[in-house]
Backbone:
């Protein structure tokens, strides 16, 4: 009399197997999406200029307008990174479409090698889509020896299209801001200490 019941349980188990497989696949896909969220968001910001993120350009601008714009430079260091970080110039005035190079300098003021990584944004945020960087040190892991100073150039231009958009054509000043954060490196493996044997026990 127990055989039909066991048969029904076996059938139910087999019928539930596709559901279990589907749920497992869904969980793994959600985990993959969560890991991809940060780089995808970063790419989205770089393409759209969302949140004041600047654009990346492979070549310099071919159009230069007679109109000028002022660009200010800001430098910050997050807690935990013993660096001095500052721009060589606090602000410059350039023609819209003109490609220029500026520099930031960072100095490790600690007694140990330290590694930092910079993020950036521009304000006003709506100008981010028109701020094109040809060369930049952002998102690069940078290690400085104790007391070492590094010159970090930034090459950029302001897209002439900024004067055509109603929301940006009246902008006269843009601020480019960088913040360096401490980057966690691999810690050395602690030496294995052998237990000291009790001589009296020997």
Residues:
């Amino acid at each position: 009399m127990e055989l039909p019941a066991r048969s029904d349980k076996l059938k139910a188990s087999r019928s539930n197997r596709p559901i279990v497989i589907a749920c497992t696949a869904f969980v793994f896909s959600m985990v993959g999406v969560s890991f991809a969220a940060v780089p995808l968001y970063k790419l989205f910001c770089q393409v759209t200029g969302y949140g004041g993120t600047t654009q990346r350009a492979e070549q310099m601008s071919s159009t230069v307008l007679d109109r000028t714009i002022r660009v200010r430079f800001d430098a910050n260091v997050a807690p935990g990174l013993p660096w001095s970080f500052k721009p060589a110039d606090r602000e410059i005035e350039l023609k819209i479409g003109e490609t220029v190079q500026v520099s930031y300098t960072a100095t490790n003021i600690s007694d140990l090698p330290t590694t930092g990584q910079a993020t950036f944004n521009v304000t006003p945020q709506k100008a981010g889509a028109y701020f094109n960087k040809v060369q930049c040190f952002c998102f690069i892991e940078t290690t400085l020896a104790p007391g070492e100073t590094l010159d970090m150039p930034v090459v950029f231009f302001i897209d002439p299209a900024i004067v055509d958009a109603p929301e940006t054509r009246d902008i006269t000043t843009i601020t480019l801001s960088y913040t360096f954060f401490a980057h966690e490196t691999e810690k050395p493996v602690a030496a294995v200490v052998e237990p000291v044997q009790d001589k009296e026990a020997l």
